[in-house]
Amino acid sequence: MQKPIIKIIVTVFLLAGLIAAGYSVINNNIASEAEGVEKLIKEVKTAKIDLLSDTTSFIETVGTVKAEAQIDVTATTRGTIRGIYFNVGDEVNINKLLASLYDSSTLTNRNNAQTNFVNMQSNLLATERITNETVHQAEIGVQAAEESIKAAEIGLKTSKDNLASARALRDKSNINLKNNAIISFNGYLNTIFSTLDQVNYIIKAEGNIQLPNIEPVLGVKNSSSVNTAKTNYFITREAYTRLTELELTASNIAVNMKKMSETLSLTQNLVDNIIIVLDNTITDANFNSASLSAQKTAFSALRATVVNSETGALSTYQVLENLALVENQETTALQNAVNAAENQLQKTQTGYDNALIVLENAKQTKNQQVLASQSSLDNAEGQFNLAQVQAGDLNIKTPISGKITGKYIEVGAEVNPGQKIAQVSQTDNLKIEINLPSEEIYRISKGEEVVIGENLKGTISSIDPAADPITRKVKVEILYDNKNNDLIQGTFIDVVIPIKKLEKTHSESVFIPLRAVIIAPEGNYVFTVMAGDGAETKLAKKTTVITGKTEGALIEILDGLNTGDELIVEGGKNLEDGETLKIIE
User: How many Cα atoms are found within 13 Å in the side-chain-facing hemisphere of 298?
Assistant: First the structure.
């Protein structure tokens, strides 16, 4: 009896152990699966879409109140404080006398410098009177010499007039030729532009406009012909762009006409490429043989126009190149006559030059004597002015208007240059400094009114052009008229800035953060949140959108989002459609 009972008991224990082991394995598998699911959950931040109203109408921040201007008034010379004419808290105007110093050596030096300056003025006047008479006698001799060369000048003028008349006629002819060349140059530019436009209309090398229905059949017999045409299109367009940037003048039209001829050659080659492309183009139901034949005819005519333009440009260039040679042959004889008249004039000027030497010597003597007297006077004046400035430095004045906010001296004290006397702050006008994220800067502007504290009004006076390299924020200064002493410098105060409303393309569009949009070749899309199987489960939904204009860190969504959609604004770059989400604040 005992043996069967023992066997039954052992069997029961074995079965219980097996069941417990199996339960443990199942629990471990469930835990592993739960852990894997947990790992697949992506953390994101979201925002509700509201097409009917703006999500933000102001920026709230805190600013530091500072004086618009604050300076330390310092002594500029050594001395003893003789008088103090201010107290802390006094309102002062610019150049208000704050304190006076006394220094006996400074005052004595000013009196001596003044006496020396008066003596040097008298000496200069006497020197000028004597030397002026000597110069006058030399000038009479120069006048006599001038009369002797007038006849030679008349002869030279006649020769030059003859040369000028011949050159004028030639120059007029050359100008007309060059002006006509400039007009032709612009006409050739129009030909190239028209050709590029017609070529692009066929092959759509750039832009979105193309001859209707031609794209599927264009150059299908030889697709490389289209690529060759596009390559030559950009080469020709680049050469055309360089031509449009040229500043045409009569002096450079010849070399630029050569460039035009070369560019027209490129244009002809491009038209030949298009004719090859059309030869390799087939017809279908949408693009029939009549349309293809019309394009071939048009480009054949266009080629003839381009060839004629190229021939005309080359011919004009050759004519312009030969202008200098023809002109030189016609004017050589007349120039020789001018040279002979100039030689004659030079001989008659020798006597005049000698008279000028005498006059120049008299002037140099005068200049040297006057310069020496003037130098002595200038030196005396400089010493007097310096002494005046040094004496003036004994009176210490405020360079700005404001309020005395610091006093650092007492009567009888000895002061040195650079020592602080007082501090003046302009508290009537205060500035409030704030720092804003760079993405918000484009929504505010200088001159805009802001709210300070409870209900005070200030004006944005400056916006730094660059952000701080460490904080990545931009400093903004707000100017406030503090004549009623509403604010105290050195304190902090709340600031509310109304922001500009973004201008929508149409009423049903919405602006969202640019970082929320994924740009892909197949189209732009965002991720929104949709409900999963469980009440708490949130899944990612890939949503295709049509984008509009971009403003700063925002982009306009024209279509694809609806009021109430929960948009994923952070964490959406690596999501896939249907992934489980964890929404964080």
Answer: 14
**Distance separating alpha carbons of residues 494 and 459, to the nearest angstrom:** 14
Secondary structure (3-state) at 456: strand
Between β-strands 580-583 and 42-48, what pairing exists: parallel, antiparallel or unpaired?
A: parallel
Q: How far is CA 383 from CA 107, 110, 115, 454, in A?
A: 13, 8, 11, 59
CB atoms under 10 Å from CB of 512, counted, come to: 21
Distance CA 257, CA 235 (A): 18
Which residues 6+ apart lie within 8 Å of 214 measured at CB? 202, 281, 287, 291, 295
Residues 6+ away with beta carbon under 8 Å from 509? 51, 548, 556, 557, 558
**CB atoms near residue 354 (< 10 Å):** 13
Task: Give the residue among 334, 350, 333, 344 at the shortest CA–CA distance from 153.
Answer: 344
Over residues 212-226, the pLDDT tens digits come to 999 999 999 999 999
pLDDT at residue 545, as a whole number = 93
Q: How many CB atoms lie within 10 A of CB 462?
A: 13
How far does the chain reach from its first CA to its final CA, in angstroms?
71
The predicted pLDDT at position 302 comes to 95
pLDDT tens-digit readout, 97-123 = 989 998 888 888 888 998 998 999 889
- Token representation of residue 76: 């500029």
Encoding tokens for residue 480? 């406030």
C-alpha dihedral (143, 149, 150, 156), degrees to nearest 10: -150
- Residue 435 tokens, joined: 């720092």
Query: Going by C-beta distance under 8 Å and a sequence separation of 6 or more, which residues neighbour residue 23?
Result: none
Show the low-confidence residues of the chain (pLDDT under 50). Answer: 1-2, 10, 12, 23, 25-26, 30-39, 52-53, 55
Provide the 8-state DSSP code for 503. Answer: P
Look at the block and give the residue holding tokens 């697949």. Answer: 40
* Torsion (CA) 483, 488, 493, 499 in degrees, nearest 10: 30
What pLDDT is recorded for position 535? 63
- Residue 293 has a pLDDT of 95
pTM above 0.85, yes or no: no
- Please report the pLDDT score of residue 4 as a whole number: 54
State the Cα angle at 584 between 581 and 585, rounded to 5°.
Answer: 150
Residue 278, classed as helix, strand or coil, is helix
Which residues neighbour 494 within 8 Å (Cβ) at sequence distance 6 or greater?
A: 60, 61, 62, 63, 452, 453
Element holding 245 (H helix, E strand): none
583 φψ region: left (φ > 0), alpha (ψ -120 to 50), beta (else): beta
How is residue 291 written in tokens? Answer: 């349309």
Look over the chain and give the mean of its residue pLDDT values, rounded to a whole number: 85
Spatial distance between the Cα atoms of 40 and 18, rounded to a whole number of angstroms: 33
Q: Around Cβ 293, how many Cβ atoms within 10 Å?
A: 12
Contact 566/48 with Cβ under 8 angstroms?
Answer: yes
Dihedral sign for Cα atoms in the order 244, 246, 247, 251: negative
For residues 142 and 355, is the Cβ–Cβ distance under 8 A? yes
